[in-house]
Amino acid sequence: MTVEEAVARVEDWLDDPDLRVQPEFAARAADGWYVPYNAAAYLDGTDLGTGLFPAPTVHVPDDGGAITLAVDVMTPPPRDPVVPREKTEAVDPAVWRGFPVRHTAAGRLLNDLHADRITLEQFAERLAATEVVVPVDDGGSPALRGIDPQYEVAICTSTEAVPAGVSRWRRMLAGDLLRSEDPVGFVVDPGRALSLSLPPQYLRTVPLPPQGEPVDEVAAELNPEVLALAERLTADHRIEIPDLLSRHVAAVTGWARNSGYELTADEAKSYLTGYAVRFSNLRGIRQNRGPSWPADLEANGLVAHYDHFGAPSPVPWTFGKFDPRNTPPGTFAWHRLVGAFAGFAAGEALVSGEGPLTAQLLRHTESVIRGLPPEPGTFDVPPDFPPPASSSSWLAIALGEEPEPAASPLLVPLAAITAAGADVAGMSQDYPKAIARAMAGTLTESTAAALDTFVDVLWELLKPGDYALPVYVHLRTFAREERRFAGELSKTVLGLREDRDADDRAQLGTIGDGGEPLSVLGRALFAVGKRHYDAEAAFEAAAGDPLVSALTGAFLGARGGVPGLPRHAVRAVGRIGLVENVASDAFWHFARFGVRREPSARHDWERQRYPRG
Hints:
Oligomer: single chain
Largest sheet: 5 strands, antiparallel
Distance between the termini: 72 Å
Shape: globular
Helix content: 40-55%
Radius of gyration: 26 Å
Strand content: 5-15%
CATH class of the largest domain: Mainly Alpha
CATH architecture of the largest domain: Orthogonal Bundle
């Protein structure tokens, strides 16, 4: 029997469209073939939670006998324990596939399980000897439980994965939680997209390591330096509510965790400093005193925002980790939308300095806000859209005189997609696609396909949640659907991605002429499709062209937020505050619980900041 015949038999035997054979991993047995299969959505990368662990493998005998599960080969041979390792040139297989880059042994172990590199039994055994982070209460007992509180204890693979509301935790070996006579199960990274439930039956017989030395730690809001600074700032700025700053920093650290980030103690101190300065200035304005802003905004935890009239009105810098208004996400998440705008600006700045592309993106976004209602009555673009540009708007004043860039239709999709932020019935990618086309004017068929593809990718990356699938997974969908222009482009990018060791810039240069919009978009999709796990490498691949680099940054920022961008790239954007200001305005304008739910703010918003038409 040939391997093709064996695979065909298994496909007939499965008779389930949700399952797919993996012929590339078929192996010869003594009397037939071993053929593995798994969930189709898992193999495509569209739903990692459907994966079967361990991957089922069947035995197909040469004599045509019954197909049976090959239990003896379904358990991989033991591997060396997962331990912290130095960074090497080789890319971790799980990370290459799109699982998060992990910085702890427990996180890498969880990746190995999700990537089907180890079985659940092997995961349990190795986890017992691995350091984890256990949320605890003030008395040192586990603070979080699973669905079955009698048995399930919540553990985290890192401090970044600690849920909101938890301010204390204990670093310890997972096995030390298993020394009780009562059965214990784990919920790993509760509330996260890649969380895992590990029932007691997988842990009863695991060998326990020598008992470790636990270390108790606290979150930023309980850090002694943060609390001392809050007390000092309260006195320096004569804040009448004694615990205002300490309560506020506790709130924002929780908001950051809800977005998937951890606010460090240094970041909390920076934010508190800026918050106290702004609080003091706003109080002074109410008392008819003019504002007094420090000359060095960054040193005081501030970035430049602007009021309705274009005058500076600095705000505390959130590092892109949380929405200072704490607006519930709608179609998109605040941190992803701000990340996309910041990434676009960073990409341009890395190649050519702060330039006209970002300024034009901000102008386009202003047009979208001024020209479209917060919640569309219909999904038809108004005939008078986009509105004429205003030379007296707050944004025009803040930007000053800027050289106009050579027009590129690829500057409009990111602005256009903000209008889809209202999570209303019937909202789909078609609405921002129509907006983008209206803004771009007359288009060739290939350019229209480029705009549509840009919107489709952003639509997936901007969705709420702490984890987003990598770009290449969406390109697989475009390729399978044989989309005109986008399908062929996706196949080209995916083919180049397979050659992991090839020179990225040389490969990128083979995608079209670098001038046509579809080629420019394809080059950015290649940079982030091949190097989605390493923002530095993705930017390096796109470094030859400011627009390619800007689009690459938009994709990187949409998936990883501002924290997912290289720090030096964000610092290269001298007006990062203005970029965040416009992106936040767009989010708040179109969010279901945004400006439309704030009657006192909506009047000035629509009459002064973003007048219609």
